[in-house]
Amino acid sequence: MSVYLDNAATSFPKPDAVYEAVDYALRRVGVGPGRGGYRRSIEATRIVFETREAVATLLGVADSSRVVFTHSATEALNLAVSGLLSPGDHVVTTTVEHNSLVRPLHAASGRGVEVTSVAADRRGFVTPDAVAAAMRPNTRLVALSHCSNVTGALQPVEEIGAEVKKRGALLLVDAAQSAGMIPLDAPAIGIDLLAAPGHKGLFGPQGTGILYVADGVELTPLMVGGTGVHSSDEEQPAAMPERYESGTLNTPGIAGLGAGVAFIERTGISAIRERETSLVRQILEGLAGMRRVTVHGPAADEPRGSVVSFSATDTDPQTIGFRLDHDHDISVRVGLHCAPSAHRTIGTYPTGTVRVSPGFFTTDNEVELFLRALREIVGG
Ligand SMILES: Cc1ncc(COP(=O)(O)O)c(C=O)c1O
What we know:
Number of helices: 12
Strand order of the largest sheet: 2-8-7-6-5-3-4
Bound molecules: pyridoxal-5'-phosphate
Helix content: 25-40%
Largest sheet: 7 strands, mixed
CATH topology of the largest domain: Aspartate Aminotransferase, domain 2
CATH class of the largest domain: Alpha Beta
C-alpha cells in the first residue's frame, strides 16, 4: 500500500471532481477565456469567473476581481514583493520564511529596499510585539507566512494585522500552508496581499496559484502583454484582474482549482480542519512514544497547521526518507524544505528534518503504517 504524506508540497489525491473538471476543460472546452466571442470561449470565461468567485468567497473577499490567477504561490509572492516595493522602503519579515518569499525580498534588498527579519522562537512562532518593535516610519510592508512549512507553527496574523494597520503599513500573508485548510477571512484580518498555491490545500492542479490584492493596493505588474482586452492600447490595462494576468490563462488548471474549492465548500473548511488536526494529533502522539525522535514545532494543543517536522538520534533525515520510500512505499519530505533560515532558527540546519504532512484524504491506518515503519527504522 502506497502512503503519501507530503501534502505540504502538493495535495494528493485530489477530489474526483478536480480530475473531471480538468478533463472537461481540456477535452470539451479546449479554448482560452476572453479571447473570442464564440460560445466555446464564453464557456472558458465562465469557468475562470466561477473559480475566481469561489476563491474570493473562501477568503472572505467581496469583489472577486481582486483575486489574480498566477502559476504558483511563488509567482504570487514575487508579484506582491517586486510590484509593491521601491528603493527606500522598509520591510519586516521573519526568520522562518520559505525561499519563495525570502528570495524576492533578498532581490529587493539589492535594489535598495531594507529588510528586517524578526527572529521566531524554536517552535517557529513570532510575536505581534516583536513585529511591531521592528517596524519603522518607512515600513511599507510586513510579510510573513500564516503557517510554517517547516514546523507547522501558526502565526497570530490577526494581532499582527492590527499592529500593521496601526502603523500604516501593508500586510502580505503567504497562506501556502493554510489556504483551504484553516478558515481565513483576509479583509477581516486586515490582509492587503495574500498569496496561495492552488495545488495544496485548495486541491487544484499544479501550475495554479492566486494573489489577493486588496482594494486600493497598486502593484507594478510582473509581466505585461496579451490580456484579451483593450487590444488597441500599448499600456497594460488598469482594470482588475487583467492588469496582472498577461498571457492565456491555465484554463484546465483553473477549472480543477474551481472544483477543488467547490469540494472545500461542500465539505466545510471546519470539517477539513478538524480531520487534519486529528491526524496531526495521532502523528504527534505516535512520535512522542519514540525515545530517539525529537519533534521540532508546536505541541498538538498549540496553534498549528498540518505539518510535523522531526529528527532522530543516530539516523539522519535522508536515511529515514529513503527507507520509508524504498522499504515501505511511504512518501515524506526530508531536508531543508526550501526554508534554510527556518532550520537555523529551530536548530536543525544544515541537516534539516523529516517532514510529515497528512491531508484530508489521509486515513488513520496510513498514519499507523507510517509510525510502525518509522519505529522499525529508528529503533523504537
Ligand atoms: C510556505 C510556503 N510558501 C510558498 C510555497 C511555494 O508554493 P508554490 O510551489 O505554489 O510556488 C510553499 C510550497 O512549497 C510553501 O510551503
